[in-house]
Structure formats: structure tokens, C-alpha cells
Amino acid sequence: MFPGAATPRDETPTPGRTAVGRPTAAEPVHRPAAAAADGEDRVTEAALRPKDLDAFIGQARVREQLDLVLRAARQRSVTADHVLLSGAPGLGKTTLAMIIAAEMGAPLRITSGPAIQHPGDLAAVLTSLTGGEVLFLDEIHRMSRPAEEMLYLAMEDFRVDIVVGTGLDATAMSLELPPFTLVGATVRAGLLLPPLRDRFGFTAHMEFYDPAELERVINRSARLLEVEVEPAGAAEIAGRSRGTPRIANRLLRRVRDYAEVTADGAVTRQIASAALGVYEVDGRGLDRLDRAVLHALLKLFGGGPVGLSTLAVAVGEERETVEEVAEPFLVREGLLARTPRGRVAMPAAWAHFGLVPPPGPSRAAPPGHQNGNSGQDDPPGGRPGRTTSPAAPRHRPP
Ligand SMILES: Nc1ncnc2c1ncn2[C@@H]1O[C@H](COP(=O)(O)OP(=O)(O)OP(=O)(O)O)[C@@H](O)[C@H]1O
Ligand SMILES: [Mg+2]
């Protein structure tokens, strides 16, 4: 009845993200370390999600700031300000959205950008909200432009303007909305146009987790899953989890399988290391996609610069997958740089593969050297806070 309303994330089509973990035509990609959730994950994820801010591990600053926002709203008995959560896949955005609703004692409505392609979809969701409700709009950067404009008014004035009837009978109607809290999630705040970004009262940038925090995530999940994990085993998994709780949980489950099948079920460092070797997660946590991206960059393009589209084609993935799933971690690890002229391999990438960079100042490519890519379609990926120009990529479903 209300398209897009109360759609659980699992049932929402996410066009740009379906590429994640999907087998390519050339080769089925098995990615135990992939950051996006698939079937089995989602079931376990629901069970492993922390339910309140105290149980939410890491992200100390975000937790403190959010706690203040929510407590102040509770004290004043008003709905909390709109919250934007940005961060790479699997860092806890959906989890935090659920926690916000729980902490406010408010019902939670879940929908996502790809489910909102017409303003009518959004109007249906908005007009069905009850007072104080938390509306979680996942992948908000994939919402259609006309719907986005409707959202501006709803966020600011709690009002929607809708047109009833067609042709000469069409009449504009303005509907009042009950106060609600919008929680938007995006992989990068820079993908949102400033008018939308500025309407959020609080923006939380989720950072990658450090190994000690991931160890806590693993120990907590091990308790819930009733897996016996030695401290050294947890440390081994944490070090290979790409700074991402979802991956830590996933690797824990794969290591548990290995421990149960080949040993007595206890996760030691040795078991964890052997299991992760089987799943091709290397000592630095790079998985098949990460390695494919770096390998293409180094071997096919001499270390770059190369445009994102070219790189994505070379590894047989969607550009969004390379940009949103692989690159944030590679950039953070100092393995890859996004430059105005394209992607460039950093010295650590050459070293990781035991390769020697070609001689000469090739890291700073000469003007015009784009390795077969104009670079026009490949501006460097946005950093948090980057102002998005109209020419910048805004991922829309096809
Ligand atoms: N701070 C945390 N403490 C403990 N577990 C966490 C934390 N953050 C995330 N997790 C675990 O990681 C899983 C993935 O988190 P979540 O689904 O919230 O990520 P996300 O940022 O919404 O990812 P996506 O961008 O793919 O939607 C959760 O099920 C939860 O078990
Ligand atoms: Mg999510």
C-alpha cells in the first residue's frame, strides 16, 4: 500500500550494490571477506547487532556525540534532529540507525534510496509516519532527484506538497507531517548534494575500526555464537578484517567452520591463520577483489594513474564496487591513492606484491598520460566533506 514503506533492507533492491560479491561472468567470485552482506550474513547479522549505544563497540567520538544529541532530545521531549551516517559498508550504519530508534523509544521505519524513485514513493512513506517515528533511509545517495527535493521540505518544515489529479483537474495540496527523525545512511557524505547534506543536524562519519576494537567485536560475537576463541585467535582474525566489524564476524564464522571440521572447534591463532589462508584472506586482510584491483593497477597499468572505469573493467567489477567496497580500505592502508588524474599505486602496494616500481618519476604521471582513459569520467572519489559538483558522480540506479 505504501510503496517503499517499512521495507526491510533485505527485500529492497539495491541496483548499484548488487554487484558486490556477485559472481562475474568470467569467474565466480567467492569473497568471504567481502564487506557487503549476503543471505547467511543477514540472518546472523541481525542476531549479532548491538541493541544499544553501550553495546556498540568503537566509534567513540560518534557514540559520544550521538549520545548527547539523543539525550538532549529526550530531556526536551522532542524528536531528535535528523542524523546522517556515512561510512564504508559494514561499519555499523544500519546498526546505529536501529540503536537511535531504540534509544528514543520510537518505532523505526526502514526504506532505501533505490526504493524511492518517484516523489510519490516518498510521499507515501512520509504521510504514513507517526509522530516521533525514526525513518531510516539507507543508501540515501541513490534516491531520485525529484524525491530528494521533496525530502528537503519534509526535513525542514515537516510538510509535503503533492499534486492530486491530472491535467486541468490537478491541484497542489500541502500536507502537514508529524515530527520525525530522518536517519540517512550513505557510503560517502560527499555523494550528497549540499542542500540535502546541510539539512541534517548531525553527521556521523564512521571510521574503520582498529584491531583492538575488532577483537572486542569478535569476542562479543564468539560469546553470542558460543564459539571458543583464544585471545591470539581473535587477534589473528581482527588483523585480517579490513577494519570492518561485518568482515570480522564473517571471518569468525568461516574460522569456526574450519575449527570444527579440522580440529576440536577451539579457535587458536594457528587455526585462524590456516583457515584464513584457505579463504584467501591475506595477512593484511586483503581479499580477492582488493588484490585483483592492486594487481591490475600494478601489472596492467604500471602503477597508474588509471581511471576508475578502466580499472573496474580490468577486474570485471562494477565501478561502484571498486570505488565503494575496495578503495576506501586500500586508500586507508596507504596502498592506493585517488588523484585528479586517476588511481595510483603507492609504494606499499608494490612492496606488498614483492614488486619493484619502474624507475623514473612515473608515480607522478606526465600530463595527459591516462593509460587509455580520459580521466574525465573519473574524478577522484569524494572524501568526507568534499563538495560535490554537478559533474561529480552521483550513483543512480540505471
Ligand atoms: N560497533 C559495532 N559493534 C559491534 N558489532 C558491530 C558494530 N558495528 C557493526 N557491527 C556488526 O557488523 C554488522 C554490519 O553492520 P551494519 O549492517 O550496521 O553495517 P552498515 O554500515 O549498515 O553496512 P552497509 O553499508 O553494507 O549497509 C552488524 O550486523 C553488526 O553485527
Ligand atoms: Mg546498512
Automatic annotation (TrEMBL):
Region (Small ATPAse domain (RuvB-S)): 210-280
Region Disordered: start-end pairs: 1-42, 357-398
CC terms in the record's Gene Ontology section: cytoplasm; Holliday junction resolvase complex
A single BP term in Gene Ontology: DNA repair
Keyword Aminoacyl-tRNA synthetase attributed: no
Location relative to the cell: Cytoplasm
Ranges where the record places region Head domain (RuvB-H): 283-398
Keyword list, A-Z: ATP-binding, Cytoplasm, DNA damage, DNA recombination, DNA repair, DNA-binding, Helicase, Hydrolase, Nucleotide-binding
Subunit structure as annotated in this protein's UniProt entry: Homohexamer. Forms an RuvA(8)-RuvB(12)-Holliday junction (HJ) complex. HJ DNA is sandwiched between 2 RuvA tetramers; dsDNA enters through RuvA and exits via RuvB. An RuvB hexamer assembles on each DNA strand where it exits the tetramer. Each RuvB hexamer is contacted by two RuvA subunits (via domain III) on 2 adjacent RuvB subunits; this complex drives branch migration. In the full resolvosome a probable DNA-RuvA(4)-RuvB(12)-RuvC(2) complex forms which resolves the HJ.
Domain notes: Has 3 domains, the large (RuvB-L) and small ATPase (RuvB-S) domains and the C-terminal head (RuvB-H) domain. The head domain binds DNA, while the ATPase domains jointly bind ATP, ADP or are empty depending on the state of the subunit in the translocation cycle. During a single DNA translocation step the structure of each domain remains the same, but their relative positions change.
Protein name: Holliday junction branch migration complex subunit RuvB
Species annotation: Streptomyces triticiradicis
Lineage: Bacteria, Bacillati, Actinomycetota, Actinomycetes, Kitasatosporales
